[in-house]
Design brief:
about 290 residues, 10 strands, Helix Hairpins, 3-stranded antiparallel β-sheet, elongated, 3 domains, Heat Shock Protein 90, alpha+beta, 5 helices, 5-stranded mixed β-sheet
């Protein structure tokens, strides 16, 4: 109800009335309550909610448009940048085949360097695209036999190092709920690192296991390889940051950034512990 006060001010009021018994008589009572502050507050909340919904809708539309532009850019990078790289590699191979007998050893070395860097740049483009897609692709969550996935992924990685003997230990019975494709990618990056950084170790050992800590399951991929100085651990998961020279251990410098993004997509955390020449251990949790 509306009530006009003597001063002319209009107020919102609530009226409560009813019968009561008093000294043997039934009388009616009425209570008039000024509800203006509450109604004003409710109106403001409704207006804020409406404004917020509009802002969220606008922001969602902007993000969807940005994603479309990013996808278009990713396609352009994949097609427009990799095509010249393939041409460089192809023509340098033709040059070596057709004129190899007339070229000096140093010239053949230059051709090898062209091929090597063309392939390296192509792999770098693939890793950058992979990193960008992880944040945009939808998660397909399912129950996963993590022990089997780790063993299968390790077998694939080991095939790339046929002359390298590694003692691999995968804990049995590990189960997770996650996106299988992303978990396979995570394991591939961590295990490739483990194989790579134990390449000079004659008795290389790599472990995949889980630990229980304060009600949480922590997954660990560890090795007894080159390790690193913990003073630089903050750089570890940043794209293009390397703790070893490329001459020692080749790579794009993006693998651990991909690992961190995959873990973040699953609501988890990732961290590492290591010592120089004593190996490294990578720990991660999965949310939910």
């Amino acid at each position: 109800l509306k009530h006009r006060r003597a001063c002319g001010d209009i107020r919102d009021v609530e009226v409560f009335s009813g019968p009561i018994e008093y000294l043997g008589n039934t009388i009616l009572y009425a209570i008039v309550h000024d509800a203006t502050p509450r109604i004003q507050a409710e109106t403001e909340v409704r207006e804020l909610t409406r404004t917020l919904e509009q802002r969220v809708a606008k922001r969602t539309e902007e993000l969807e448009e940005a994603n479309k532009e990013l996808e278009s850019f990713a396609y352009s990078v994949s097609h427009d940048l990799k095509a010249p790289l393939r041409a460089m590699e192809g023509f340098s191979n033709l040059l070596a085949e057709e004129a190899g007998a007339d070229l000096s050893p140093s010239m053949l070395h230059y051709i090898d360097r062209i091929n090597y860097n063309a392939k390296k740049t192509s792999r770098l483009i693939d890793d950058i695209l992979r990193l960008s897609r992880i944040s945009r692709q939808s998660l397909v969550i399912s129950d996963i036999d993590f022990s089997k996935l780790a063993a299968d992924t390790a077998a694939e990685v080991a095939a790339a190092y046929p002359d390298k003997k590694v003692e691999l230990t995968v804990q049995a019975g590990m189960k997770i709920r996650a996106d299988k494709a992303l978990m396979e990618q995570l394991l591939t990056n961590l295990l490739e690192n483990a194989w790579k950084f134990t390449s000079s170790i004659p008795d290389a050992r790599i472990r995949v296991e889980s630990l229980d800590s304060e009600g949480k399951t922590i997954y660990v991929v560890s090795d007894n390889g080159a390790g690193f100085d913990m003073a630089y651990v903050d750089k570890l998961f940043t794209p293009f940051q390397r703790l070893h020279t490329e001459t020692e251990y080749p790579g794009s410098g993006i693998g651990l950034s991909i690992v961190r993004r995959i873990v973040a997509r699953h609501g988890g955390q990732v961290w590492a512990k290591a010592s120089p020449n004593e190996g490294a251990a990578f720990y991660f949790t999965l949310g939910g």
